[in-house]
Model the fold of this input.
Amino acid sequence: MKAFQALFVLLLTAAGADGQSFHLGKCPQPSVQEDFNITKYMGTWYEIEKLPAVFEKGKCNQATYSLLTDGTVGVRNAELLSNGKINSIEGVAKVKNSSQPAILGVSFFKGVPDAPYWVLSTDYQSYALVYSCSDYLSLFHFDFAWILARTRVLSEEVVSQLHDKLAAAGVNINRLTVSNQTGCDIMT
Ligand SMILES: *[C@@H]1O[C@H](CO)[C@@H](O)[C@H](O)[C@H]1NC(C)=O
Ligand SMILES: *[C@@H]1O[C@H](CO)[C@@H](O)[C@H](O)[C@H]1NC(C)=O
Ligand SMILES: *[C@@H]1O[C@H](CO)[C@@H](O)[C@H](O)[C@H]1NC(C)=O
Done:
């Protein structure tokens, strides 16, 4: 519990300093991808844009998902740091309620509550829009969002459609930042 509180204070401080991911009120409840097929979602996704995520400092950010035998999903997030080293972290994602397959929880640290991972929209082959929002005391919330693609570039047209979807969900798209996906040859 202490660790969780510390993390919470850290998030609050970071979000406060950033002034961007912290909002009053409860999380919005956007609609998610219909008939989500997790098998088709597996594999590598590259981060095209994100809502500021303070824990990501590098570039060439990517996530690789793999279906595990117990039905959960292995997650490996990797990024290239400015010193040329690859930083990676592994976690597990799972569908919490099989009647809502596009709503997952992701955990990178034992004992820390899952972070929500909602797949709002994907065609599996080119793009995905992911949203994560956590309520605290029903008074305020933090949110994160990621536009992901199967390649390190995504057409402006698709990005623009995903912006519209996020905006419709009540997310302030002015807060999105473009991820640097150039000079990533060292990443596999
Ligand atoms: C999900 O996708 C996999 C791989 O394409 C396919 O074999 C499976 O039938 C799909 N599941 C459903 C329920 O459509
Ligand atoms: C799973 O989702 C369905 C549909 O939204 C809901 O009726 C049901 O109560 C949920 N089950 C659990 C265990 O939360
Ligand atoms: C992205 O990274 C490349 C290679 O490290 C660098 O040259 C470029 O300036 C960066 N682009 C931005 C927008 O930061």
Confidence is low (pLDDT under 50) at residues 13-19. The chain has three helices and ten strands. The chain has one domain: 26-179.
